[in-house]
Input
Amino acid sequence: MKNPLTKEAIKLTTFGRRKVAPRVCIADGKRHIRKFLGQALEELGFITCECTQVGELSAVLDGQAPDLVIVGLSTGGIDPGVILEALATRSFDGKVLLLGPRDSLMLAAVQELGDQRGIAMLPTLATPFDSRSLGNSVAALLPTEAPPSPVIEAAEALRGDWVELWYQPKFDTHTLELCGAEALIRVRHPTWGVIPAAYFLPDKDDPYLSILSEFVIGRAVEDWHNFIQHRAIEISINLPMIFFQDSKSVQTLRRQMPDHPAFEGLIVEISAADIISNLGLTKAAARQLRFSNIAISIDDLGSDWPSLVGLHDFPFVEIKVDRQFIAGCANDRLKQTVCRQILDLADGFGARTVAEGVETRADFFTVREMGFDLVQGFLFAKPMTAQKFALTTLRHPVSMP
Output
């Protein structure tokens, strides 16, 4: 069973803290249905567990204390009537969502049974369905407040093995061909569910920052080896400036690169502010790393772009424009002006450009018209687990939303 936690463990992780992430139990006999639902619900912010047979339900209710139970009516699956009777016997005070074929007599009968037994039944979700309709069905259970900051310490996250890398793809602006993916840190916390790195990243003086950086490098290389089973992919990772102040760390990074003929290189993204403040160090690192097929990208470049004008030596391969100048650029001439100035700068240095934070069709057509090489943003894909990235994005071409 997924995410097995005892009742004592639940108490330890929630005592003295408000419960932020809702919990859901997926009760269905079909593995591929449980897998799809689990991934979709985790991306929405749920903590998930599975129930493959009625006999497991009591342990789930005791250990996971779910807020929601999803019951599928797939052929050969779990008997939904038995599940509802078991929930009623246990005085389950959460909600139940039924999944089944539209206009199914059985679906209507089971929904009526739940109402008769005093169970809080959500409106049924007809199959087939997508992630958006699933999200709409369970939206009322999602918290309206963000997790408190900081949620946890990096040391705690690493010790608990909660840290993961999720991937957001980057696409060619003109062909929409997959060109790479940025690895982003996520923490799968036992109380708050999946949370972004902003809630737990350590300060630059925290010794765990270097340990976290080593984790990111190692996991990205491991994921690349898994991705290559489907196709070669260029991965980008984010590393802090302090990482490059230690020559041993840089050497370790170089040694960890895959010795594989399909490996086309690793992109290391460093914030524009850090690069501008440490030009000498980052330029030296970029020159050294390129001999190991590692390149440096200038991340989140915006109004500080003039600081890079006039450089005679520009060993950086990529410039990513800050999302604040991409979002809404279709209707903002000032943002377009900044973007075009950065594009001219990149063109003069022979660096490729990435528009990050593209969320609307209008902004996409605008950045394509301006001449960006790559796009990245929610319009095409949100960050996703490494497994989902491998099974979906690497296998199927993207189409214009």
User: Anything to note?
Assistant: The chain has 14 helices and 16 strands. Residues 1-19 have pLDDT under 50 and may be disordered.
